[in-house]
Amino acid sequence: MPTSVARVGGSLPGGNFLPEVWSRKLQAKFYLSTVLDRICNHDWEGEIKDKGSKVKIRVRPTVVTRPYSVNSGISYQDLEDDYIELLLDKARYFAFKIDDIDVYQSDVSLMNECTQDAGENMKIDIDSEVLGSVYANAGLALTSTAVTKSTVLDWLVDAGTKLDESNVPETGRWAVVPPWITGSIKKSDLKDASIAGDGTSILRNGRIGMIDRFEVFNSNNVANNGTTWNCLAGTRHGICFASQVTKVQHMDKLENTFASAVRGLNVYGFKVTKPEALVHMPATKS
After folding, report:
1. What average pLDDT score do residues 251-259 get?
2. Which of 4, 13, 70, 241 has the fewest Cβ atoms within 10 Å of its own Cβ atom?
């Protein structure tokens, strides 16, 4: 046990940080895996200054080909300079204060620890929000499937077939599934790591491996109602995401209390820009 330090005055709120009840080393915290960095397109984040900023995403024109005959005329196509507008209309913040006595009695930087924790939880909350809404705008869908170790591989292959039929490129394909489906994959016929495109093991943090051209990610943030899990597959072309922490402020002294504070603001937005590059894969437990 660490050496205790006498408290000044009466009982203090937030006593979890006092030496009497915690050791010199804070207990490691396990954060949920987040996947947005791997499945979304971030190419147009631009300069995000405040809530309400806009990012204009240019759309590549479709060039038409025509048959040609000797000595025939040529028709020139007028190209349309089209774009999709991504509105940065969402924001999340964190704000916390630490009593000066807590800081005095601690031998670790509470501000740094708590700010790091706030950043990780911010990622988790936004990850859940995006995964919880974009599946409704997917342009492709499978019928609801009872996923088991016997059906999970066929289920993933069917999603790949949907993308193939829509001429979606094979490069950069991904799928996001909850832990119980990850378990079904590990119990399936996929016993040899090399089948998953790896030389060692399909057990890893967040990333399962390659299955039928999909990089499969494990996530607790897949939207569900306890019965149906709204899994997703696609490519980075499907979802555009832009985010920026626009303000992080440290306030040395707060009014009416002996405490310091930190607060931060994250402005972000997301949009399904190519519905045909996303497959909604509703899954139920057998």
Report:
1. 75
2. 70
Of the ranges 12-16, 176-180, 213-217, which one carries the lowest mean pLDDT score? 12-16
Does the pLDDT value for residue 284 go beyond 50? Answer: yes
* Cα–Cα distance measured from residue 138 to residue 149, given in angstroms and rounded to the nearest whole number: 26
Phi-psi group of 157: left, alpha or beta (phi > 0 → left; psi -120 to 50 → alpha; rest → beta): alpha
Residue type, 109: S
Q: Which two tokens stand for residue 16?
A: 């979890």
| Phi/psi of residue 102, nearest 5 degrees | -60, -45
Amino acid symbol at 173: R
Q: Which residues contact 30 (CB under 8 A, 6 or more apart)?
A: none
Q: With contact defined as beta carbons under 8 Å apart, do 270 and 89 qualify?
A: no
pLDDT score of 194 more than 60: no
> Are 246 and 266 a contacting pair, CB within 8 Å?
yes
Euclidean distance between CA atoms 116 and 136, whole angstroms: 32
Residue 68, both tokens? 């040609």
| Separation of alpha carbons 173 and 171, rounded Å | 6
What is the per-residue pLDDT for 77? Answer: 78
Q: Would you give the DSSP letter of residue 109?
A: -
Exposure string (b/e) for 148-181, b if CB count within 10 Å is 16 or more?
ebebbbebbebbbebbeeeebeeebbbbbbbeeb
Tens-digit pLDDT profile for residues 35-72: 888 899 887 666 566 556 777 777 677 788 888 888 78
* Torsion angle in degrees (nearest 10) through CA of 188, 142, 224, 267: 110
Largest pairwise CA distance in the chain: 98
> What are the structural domain ranges in the chain?
12-46+92-286, 53-87
